[in-house]
Specification:
Helix content of chain A: 25-40%
Distance between the termini of chain A: 6 Å
Largest sheet of chain A: 6 strands, mixed
Oligomer: heterodimer
Largest sheet of chain B: 2 strands, antiparallel
Number of strands of chain A: 10
Number of strands of chain B: 4
Distance between the termini of chain B: 34 Å
CATH topology of the largest domain in chain A: Rossmann fold
Low-confidence stretches of chain A: 1-11
Helix content of chain B: over 70%
Shape of chain A: globular
CATH architecture of the largest domain in chain A: 3-Layer(aba) Sandwich
CATH superfamily of the largest domain in chain A: P-loop containing nucleotide triphosphate hydrolases
Shape of chain B: globular
CATH topology of chain B: ABC transporter involved in vitamin B12 uptake, BtuC
Largest interface: A-B, 40 and 34 residues
CATH architecture of chain B: Orthogonal Bundle
Structural class of chain A: alpha/beta
CATH class of the largest domain in chain A: Alpha Beta
CATH class of chain B: Mainly Alpha
Radius of gyration of chain B: 22 Å
Strand order of the largest sheet of chain A: 6-7-8-3-9-10
Chain lengths: 264, 349
């Protein structure tokens, strides 16, 4: 089995939702990404693992518009796209939960869900005076949380800073998964969480997949990765060292590939 | 939907969060803190009411309507500057140049009218342009060169002071030589037994307008989000630099109105006026409970802060204390206000 031999279980010849082709990104003399390709199919959890500095974060930033790759192309549902800002990726339905959560602590849950895409009241109050539809957004936020099966957030008017770590993560995931997104990218979603809260987040990931939403998961935590991932993309030194599945390889194999002690 | 809510309700209540259990073990003090945290304008309101009662007891002249009306007129300029200052502090910035911008604008308004014969309404527009240009310069330096707002406005403070003196030649323009429109903000009208100045009304209208925009529009929410966590706001898709630039421009526009109020209040345009106004506006904002770390606070708090300072200065001087003690009291107020703010913010953890 070689690095390019990409197993695609249960995906057959279906078209990937998100494709990256030979992404290269350099920071001065440092090569962050050295020709990385990636496919994400509908209804799968694709984990991206790798040692520190292997290019995981850079890869994610390129996929989500936070960085612009020097060369290479991105395709969403087969169409070539160019992301210059995170909003561009969002406009194509790619939503990201960043490691630092990117929630605004002083704002409440509903405001955070709608941050950057606020809705205004209908009629002249909204169009002329630009008044926000606070009630409507709260109602929709609540409905969206129920639809996503997130039961840890009951009150959408609580400021996020009053929530626990797992609840904050749920807010961030809900924002990414809500409002018709096509791909959810989770950067180290369990890094700061306890055992039970981690399990809640992993369950949330499975729920999203079961609703047909593909998930890209970046994590250092091998048991978590092997628990939820359908396929695992291993980054090493700015390149994709291998793409494996939890069935084809063990955790030890994955770590060996990650550190360069073995090739797939 | 209600059925769904009910269906989703019970399972969540089962796992009670350890953090919530911990918060339930509250002392009376921490409960007070939670209330103050929830309503940031509450603590300055209490301080203001207590101050009014205490000074009213100390001196029976204090609570007379003429005196209360005088206090509102005294705070109209600082109160207006505090609006601009609040906008900027909410974005985790600070503007040391507000007073200097206002004085520069007031000199341009007065001199173009009196020396260059410009019609008064046009002169006011010129003042607005000066305010916007100053705001644009500050905003440009903050967003493009990524300089800390403190440094930017420390620099522009000196630049604007120098420009004011260069432009005006150091001479004051008297109100008596200006058209009535320019000193209109100083005129008063009776409301029952009280005389209210137009400047106070203008200030209050600005407060209502800015409070509405901050509280009810997406722009207002974005201002808070940028001040709260700039990176989080950027990742959420908020154009951070555009929001910051618009905040500095809005502040500049408010300062131009402040210049008009200042001309009316002092019945003159003097290049040497208002040296204390830069810091006084920060004092009002801080006492009003707006956090210098950004993202927290309200414009109404700043009005309360400006009133508290005004009440203290007026009350202490009625009590026969030297002006130095007023300054001392304001200093103590600032430190107490920031200490209380820090204490309230501990709710977060």
């Amino acid at each position: 089995m070689t690095a390019v031999d990409v197993p695609t279980p249960a995906t057959g010849t279906r078209q990937p939702i998100l494709q990256a082709r030979n992404l290269v990104k350099t920071f001065g003399k440092v090569v962050g990404l050295d020709g990385v390709s990636l496919d994400l199919y509908p209804g799968e959890v694709l984990a991206i693992i790798g040692d520190n500095g292997a290019g995981k974060s850079t890869l994610i930033k390129c996929l989500t518009g936070a960085e612009i790759p020097d060369t290479g192309e991105l395709l969403v549902s087969g169409q070539q796209v160019h992301f210059k800002r995170p909003q561009d990726a969002r406009a194509h339905g790619i939503e990201t939960v960043y490691q630092n959560l990117a929630v605004s602590p002083a704002l409440d849950v509903a405001s955070n869900l709608f941050l950057g895409r606020e809705e205004r009241l209908p009629g002249p109050l909204g169009s002329l005076f630009r008044v926000l539809d606070t009630k409507g957004m709260r109602r929709k936020a609540k409905a969206e949380l129920i639809r996503l099966g997130i039961s840890t957030l009951q009150d959408v008017t609580v400021p996020v800073e009053n929530l626990s770590g797992g609840q904050r993560q749920a807010v961030a995931v809900a924002r990414a998964a809500a409002f018709g997104s096509k791909v959810v990218v989770l950067d180290e979603p369990t890094a700061a969480l306890g055992v039970r809260e981690s399990n809640q987040v992993l369950q949330l990931v499975r729920d999203l997949r079961d609703r047909g939403l593909p998930v890209i998961l970046i994590s250092h935590n091998m048991p978590h990765v092997f628990d939820v991932a359908d396929r695992i993309h291993i980054q090493r030194l700015g390149k994709c060292a291998a793409t494996i599945t939890p069935q084809s390889h063990s955790m030890t194999d994955a770590v060996a590939i990650m550190t360069g002690a073995a090739t797939a | 939907m209600t059925q769904q809510q009910q269906a989703a309700g019970p399972p969540a209540e089962k796992h009670s969060d350890p953090a919530e259990e911990f918060m339930d073990r509250s002392t009376p003090l921490s409960r007070i803190r939670n209330v103050l945290h929830r309503y940031p304008a509450l603590s300055p309101t209490i301080v203001l009411l207590v101050a009014v009662v205490v000074f009213g007891v100390l001196n029976d002249r204090f609570l007379r309507v003429e005196n209360l009306s005088l206090i509102t007129q005294q705070v109209s300029v600082v109160g207006t500057l505090a609006i601009a200052q609040t906008l900027i502090i909410l974005t985790a910035g600070i503007d040391l140049s507000v007073g200097a911008v206002m004085i520069l604008a007031s000199m341009v308004v007065a001199q173009t009218t009196v020396n260059n014969g410009m019609p008064a309404p046009l002169a006011l527009v010129a003042g607005l342009v000066v305010g916007l240009a100053a705001g644009a310069l500050n905003g440009f330096l903050v967003t493009r060169f990524k300089l800390p707002p403190f440094i930017v406005t420390l620099g522009t403070l000196n630049i604007f002071i120098a420009l004011t003196l260069l432009y005006s030649g150091g001479s004051t323009v008297r109100g008596s030589s200006m058209p009535a429109l320019l000193t209109w903000m100083g005129s008063t009208f009776p409301v029952g037994p009280v005389r209210i100045s137009t400047g106070v009304v203008a200030m209050l209208l600005l407060y209502i307008g800015v409070a509405f925009i901050l509280g009810k529009t997406a722009w207002g929410r974005h201002v808070y989000a940028v001040g709260d966590d700039k990176e989080a706001a950027r990742l959420a898709g908020i154009p951070v630099n555009r929001v910051l630039m618009s905040v500095y421009l809005a502040a500049g526009a408010v300062l131009a109105v402040g210049a008009w109020i200042q001309i009316g209040r002092t019945n003159a345009a003097s290049p040497n006026a208002g040296v204390d106004l830069n810091l006084d506006s920060i004092t009002a904002v801080v006492i009003g409970g707006t956090s210098l770390f950004g993202g927290r606070g309200s414009v109404w708090g700043s009005l309360l802060g400006a009133l508290i300072v005004g009440v203290f200065r007026n009350g202490l001087s009625l009590a026969g204390l030297d002006v130095l003690f007023q300054t001392l009291a304001v200093g103590v107020l600032i430190i107490v206000a920031v200490s209380v703010d820090q204490w309230i913010r501990k709710v977060k953890s």
